[in-house]
Write a structure and sequence with these properties.
The protein is α/β, with parallel strands linked by helices. 48% of the residues lie in helices and 15% in strands. It contains 17 helices and 10 strands. The strands form 2 sheets. A 7-stranded mixed sheet has the order 6-5-4-7-8-10-9, sandwiched between helices. The radius of gyration is 22 Å and the shape is globular.
């Protein structure tokens, strides 16, 4: 076997080390972001270069400590030090501001919160048992824990809304909603996705169906979008039933939360509610059969997050096909959204009874 020249091998080893170290230190990087967003650092930096001393004063910490935090953020590509102790947000850093139209502030807060990360310390146990560890760490299942903490539940809803915006911006242009009149967004949260669909298709009427805590912000979202006359909110548990008779049912980022038995129950309830001409759209990432060289790690980290916190999983095409077939649906097509969005539209029709 031919060996590369020593100089080339040295460079490759250095690059490999950089990649490994970036991953090894990823947990620390997440805590830098968590601290910055909790303290409001991105909002304080605002639109222009700001002295570290001014940021420190507004955030109530010593100037030297703030300089150290800002330099770590700069090394992560979230801000830049324009001159000594003068910092400005990068385009990526701007997404951590509360007032940015594409803000990820809530998402960053939620996914760096101890409630999201606490069970990750038991990932090895989750792998051995196949069971979520959140219950053991926090004393209740994930969504029950959220329901008992209104502020945390609201933060989770905000994070899901922010994660859904990219899907809402692209979904209406990648699927023909023209033949439908009514749509139910099952587990639709604050109505971000339903609002995007109804805004793009004025003939449609829709319903968000979720628990009271899950849909707490939905009325405001619909009102702000001017959709109160064409959309409403119904409360319930999709493990018991879903509203009957709609032309189209949506499940966005719902199926991956649950193991096969629970996911099948949700799908069967959608099948019981859907007319024979109805359709189901599952909006989820789809795992490739083999990890590609250019794979984005998010979907695989999400897969493990589902394992440790909820007992769910991300799925391949074959796994979605089998899951739907067992619940009375036949998948008719997989429609990829743009790669940077990272989701698929999985269209399913009721199987003949």
């Amino acid at each position: 076997m031919n060996q590369p020249p020593a100089s080339e091998q040295t460079v490759r080893t250095a690059d490999a080390r950089t990649t490994a170290m970036r991953s090894i230190l990823g947990g620390m990087a997440a805590q830098v972001i968590a601290t910055a967003t909790r303290m409001g650092v991105p909002d304080t930096l605002g639109d222009g270069p700001t002295a570290a001393e001014d940021v420190a004063e507004r955030c109530g910490v010593p100037s030297q400590s703030m300089t150290r935090l800002l330099r770590a953020l700069a090394a992560l590509g979230l801000c830049a030090e324009d001159q000594s102790d003068q910092f400005a947000l990068t385009e990526a850093g701007n997404l951590l501001r509360r007032d940015h139209p594409a803000s990820l502030h809530g998402f960053a807060r939620m996914f760096t919160d101890p409630v999201m990360l606490g069970a990750w310390n038991r990932l090895d146990t989750a792998m051995q048992t196949g069971e979520p560890q959140f219950n053991d760490v926090f004393g209740a299942p994930f969504f029950d824990h959220l329901a008992g903490q209104p502020e945390l539940s609201a933060l989770f809803n905000t994070s899901m809304s922010q994660a859904t915006r990219a899907v809402g911006a692209t979904l209406p242009g990648h699927y023909d909603f023209g033949s439908y009149e009514t749509v139910v967004d099952v587990g639709g949260g604050d109505a971000t996705l339903l609002s995007a669909i109804l805004t793009s298709h004025p003939h449609l009427h829709g319903t968000v169906y979720d628990t009271p805590s899950g849909a707490a912000q939905a009325p405001d979202t619909l009102d702000e979008a001017g959709l109160a006359r064409r959309a409403g909110v119904e409360h319930g548990d999709f493990f018991d039933s879903v509203p009957h008779g709609a032309d189209l049912y949506l499940l966005k980022s719902i199926v991956h939360d649950w193991n096969d038995a629970d996911a099948s129950l949700i799908l069967r309830n959608c099948r019981a509610a859907a007319p024979e001409h109805g359709r189901l759209l599952i909006i989820e990432p789809v795992l490739p059969d083999v990890v590609p060289p250019d794979a984005r790690p998010g979907i695989y980290l999400s897969d493990l997050n589902m394992l440790v916190n909820l007992g769910g999983r991300e799925r391949t095409r074959a796994e979605f096909t089998e899951l739907c077939a067992g619940a009375g649906f036949e998948i008719t097509r997989f429609v990829p959204l743009p790669p940077k969005v990272g989701f698929y539209i999985i269209e399913a029709a009721p199987s003949p009874r």
